[in-house]
Write a structure and sequence with these properties.
Blueprint: H1 3-44, H2 48-69, H3 71-84, H4 87-93, H5 98-101, H6 103-139, H7 143-146, E1 159-166, E2 172-180, E3 188-200, E4 205-217, E5 228-240, H8 261-297, H9 305-374, H10 379-405, H11 411-434, H12 442-445, H13 447-456
Helix pairs in contact: 1-2, 1-3, 1-6, 2-6, 2-9, 3-9, 3-10, 6-9, 8-9, 9-10, 9-11, 10-11
Length: about 450
């Protein structure tokens, strides 16, 4: 028996279902993309080339999920079809076990895992970085569209706005509240019953023509007598530099999902050095209050009243300094706790790049025996269970990430726990399949069919 021919045949049976599943899942992600961003793109008048760039950059985080998600349906469909056509039975009769049958698919999943690790580490961070920069640039365009009804808008720097009703066609607005920030921390509040909002392109100005309102000001935060309330019937507010054109800006800051592994490790080392520096500083600061306390305990008693009063005053000053030092130490402890949380977030992201890629192998291991144990009639139910597995897997992943960020779980465990659980389940299923244990009776575990059979009897 030529094993190369069999291996190629098994891989060909997986290729078409994989491409089919990949296409379907990609289509679903694209529809979600269109639903989320189409209105904003149309409203802002973004060019088709910018929309295409935004879509291509968005494919980065889409493919990071689509590639492993497509593995399990392909495995179920391929092995399920081979089982229904009795090809698996014929191969077993020729002396081939399930272990040998899944080797070519397992090798392909290992290669896919390696490629996905490279993608997650080098391509995805750059894609996320450019996408975030483009999203921020788009967010600064055409603030009239960004101001939505009954939602606080901060799309214009220095202003926070709340508008109850807005007509995009005429520019008429009602129930206007505008908070203009101030350097001294007290915003100027403008409240109006109604008005009109329009963008003057030639002057790059967003113009508010307000009616029947009030202006509240307090220039000096420490002096309440500077508070002023002004009533108006008509008031015009011009906000400059609110252009609609897309202005590309350079963005140097990177979040954890915009970094590769080496960047995050360098950042972790930098934070650890900062924590060590703060810890040494805290130890030095803590030593002084201890010395002061011992000096007060073993001070030689004084005889005169004047010296006693002076000593008491000095002791009070020293105790005040001790309390200040202890307060600083408590602040340093809070800062270090926050720094450790940042380290945990970076470690989570590092392990996530590997664990999601490794799920390709896990889905092959759990999908192949599941397809065979389902029997000839169980493929539809098995594919339904594969969707359930995806949901459970990513719920574990997201939940583990939240627990690790709050430092309830080690980062490695939070990201690898879904793979560990599904890996154990996969080996149990493979063992049952190799031993030719009875196939899964989906009719028996289906509550609807069980109720119907009980009703018939």
């Amino acid at each position: 028996m030529n094993m190369r021919i069999i291996d190629r045949y098994i891989l060909r049976n997986h290729l078409k279902p994989y491409l089919f599943g990949f296409s379907i899942i990609t289509f679903i992600f694209i529809m979600d993309f269109i639903y989320r961003y189409l209105d904003e793109f149309i409203g802002k008048g973004i060019s088709i080339l910018t929309v295409l760039e935004f879509f291509i950059l968005s494919l980065g985080h889409m493919f990071a999920l689509i590639i492993p998600m497509s593995v399990m349906p392909a495995t179920l469909m391929a092995f399920g079809r081979m089982a229904s056509d009795n090809e698996i039975t014929a191969l077993k009769a020729s002396g081939l076990s399930l272990y040998r049958l899944i080797i070519p698919v397992l090798v392909a999943s290992v290669l896919l895992t390696g490629g996905l690790v490279y993608f997650n580490n080098y391509i995805l961070p750059e894609s996320n970085h450019r996408l975030m920069a483009l999203m921020l640039d788009i967010g600064r365009m055409k603030p009239t569209i960004q101001i939505k009804e009954n939602i606080f808008s901060r799309s214009i720097e220095g202003y926070t706005m709340l508008i109850e009703e807005k007509d995009d066609r005429t520019g008429n607005i009602r129930g206007v509240q505008i908070f203009q920030s101030s350097e001294k921390g007290v915003p100027t509040i403008i409240v109006a019953e109604k008005g009109r909002m329009q963008y003057i392109k030639s002057k790059n100005i967003l113009k508010f023509e307000l009616e029947n309102g009030e202006i509240h000001k307090m220039p000096n935060l420490d002096d309440i007598s500077t508070y002023r309330k002004t009533l108006f019937k008509q008031y015009t507010l011009n906000i400059r530099d609110t252009g609609r054109e897309l202005k590309r800006t350079r963005r140097d800051y990177r979040g954890d999902r915009e970094m590769n592994i080496s960047m995050m490790k360098a950042r972790i080392n930098e934070i650890n050095r900062d924590i060590e520096r703060r810890l040494n500083k805290m130890n030095d600061s803590a030593a002084e209050p201890v010395k002061e306390a011992f000096s007060l305990l073993f001070r030689t008693p004084v005889d005169s009243t004047v010296e006693a009063k002076a000593a008491l005053a000095g002791s009070r000053n020293r105790m005040h300094e001790i309390r200040k030092t202890l307060h600083k130490i408590q602040n340093e402890i809070r800062v270090m706790k926050d720094k450790k949380g940042q380290i945990s977030a970076y470690k989570v992201e590092i392990h996530k790049k590997y664990s999601i890629a490794f799920s390709c192998i896990i889905f092959v291991l759990i999908g192949s025996p599941l397809a065979l144990l389902s029997g000839k009639r169980g493929m539809a139910v098995a594919i339904g269970f594969s969707i359930l597995f995806f949901v459970i897997y990513y719920v574990f992943l997201i939940g583990g990430e939240n627990l690790a960020d709050r430092q309830y779980l080690p980062p490695w465990l939070s990201m690898w726990l879904p793979n560990i659980i599904f890996g154990v389940a996969a080996f149990i299923l493979i063992h049952q399949t190799v031993r030719e244990t009875r196939t899964i009776n989906w009719d028996r575990i289906n509550p609807v069919k069980r109720w119907r059979n009980r009703k018939k009897s």
